[in-house]
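Listing 4. Sequential folding, example run.
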Amino acid sequence: MAKSTGREPAAKKPDDAAKPPVVREPAAPPAPAKRGPAKSVQGAALDGRPWHESHLAMVRRARRINRELAEVYPYAHPELDFENPFQLLVATVLSAQTTDLRVNQTTPALFAAYPTPEDLAAAPPEELEELIRPTGFFRAKARSLLGLSAALRDRFGGEVPGKLDDLVSLPGVGRKTAFVVLGNAFGVPGITVDTHFGRLVRRWKWTEETDPEKVEAAVAAIFPKKDWTMLSHRVIFHGRRICHSRKPACGACPIAPLCPSYGEGETDPEKARKLLKYEKGGFPGQRLKPPPDYPGLAAPEAGPR
């Protein structure tokens, strides 16, 4: 028998290149043969055993998830139709407590009637409320739109400002809305913590925080600033298409081997495929005017009211 040295062998450092490749095809389930031992980052959740990892291992796993999502959703983009910063700001305010599709079906008539901040600031409240009624909470949203439009007219020369502090000073504009506008209209990196983003980063054990600002800070510490905007799009895309709130399609998830919460949803591949939404399920997306590289179908315009 070999003489014990009294020291345990050093733990093997995580090495992405040495691990089995992650299945990238959304419809394919993770292969049982590729499951590692319980201590490996890839195999722990798939084996149903406790998930243990250091902070460094979590950061590496989080960045790998981002790389995988970049390959799954190379076309990730904001799912609100807009042609300028003002339209994006208005659409984002309207998107609270409703779908981007509903907003996209509502804004064409709104922007045709009130194309500038000056026009919108002078809109009769009752007419504005009627135009945005389909988005829900229309009275409160109308007050916000009238207030922010007047502020843009009076304080910013009718232009949407490109600074966070200025944006959040506008009525009805919080950090989430501000980062949507900054990232997609001005190219300023920001993390958009909506319900999908918060849900997924907690499922992935990047943070246990629930307050949006604390979630934002925790995730910002994991990724380089240059990645923040596209990371937000990819995570939100994944939350809408595969990792749903009530019944995630775990059996059709391309990053299942990296997910500590694998098994919370449907793991059967065939059943999971039936849960896929938008282009992943062969259905129209949320934009009436999607980007040229979007692989899905354009959303339908609103029907008669």
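-- end of first protein; second protein begins --
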Amino acid sequence: MNDASVCDRTRSGVSQCSERTWSLNNIDLAGLSWSCPGCASKTPPTLLLHGWLDNSLTFEKLGPTLAELSDVHAIDMAGHGKSGHRPAGQSYLLMDYVADLAEVIDRYFSEQGTAPVDLVGHSLGGIVCGLYAAAFPENVRRLVMIDSIGAISRPVSETVPQLRRSIKKRLNGSGKSVVYPDLATAARAREGGVSPLSHEAALTLVPRNMEPVDGGYVWRTDPRLRHPSPLMMCEEQVLATLEAIETPTLFVRADKGLLSYRKGLEDRASRISHLDTVDVPGGHHCHLDGETHAVEEAVGAFLSDE
């Protein structure tokens, strides 16, 4: 599967998909847009952010569905998909993703200092969208987090060990890139891991994360994305960010997702003042892999509710 085939496979002719680029001060971000020709100009656009090591094609099912409500823009975050990489000497800090999102909204979607948009994020994208909504509530009409509710936290006692791991990895580098003979082989490599995917879902995501070389394909994604973060939030900080979210919020909880067995989610959920929670079938990629209608219906209904 290639990116063009996703744009061609619109639903009932409702949406039109196109490649997009959002040029920021220090990086160019790529992505996919689904237009909603019949939508009123006042309808807020919907911005979609993917998870770690994924790309905008994770929304190849959800994007066309939401384009029945508004214009939809799925962004490849820095270092992912077809977006640019951070300059040499920099790393991929969580708050820099939030700053990128802020610049995209300010530069491309704001009007006289305000930018009411809807945000939908999966996994890491949900964390980034939540942090942005906490910091800039006036710019977000509705927030959706798919199998995601707040940043990963670490006890304060792990601060120095985490810093040590991060610096050692930065000094040692990322190693040599693996060359895959074809995209199907790369997809099979992506199927396993912490968040397993079906072969079909892996074939959807992988092409946008690859680039051709002599002998096959290598990952286009920046290898520094796998480096440990030098500093992570403690749980108290995470709870403070969730308490700051004023935006009506939907938490889509997958019954076999990464958060399905995690303790403490009730406390996190209770900190968001206007939160709806919906349980859906599926794993971490419940919006992409397998039966996705429950996710599409829940998110669509939430964003269309005035």
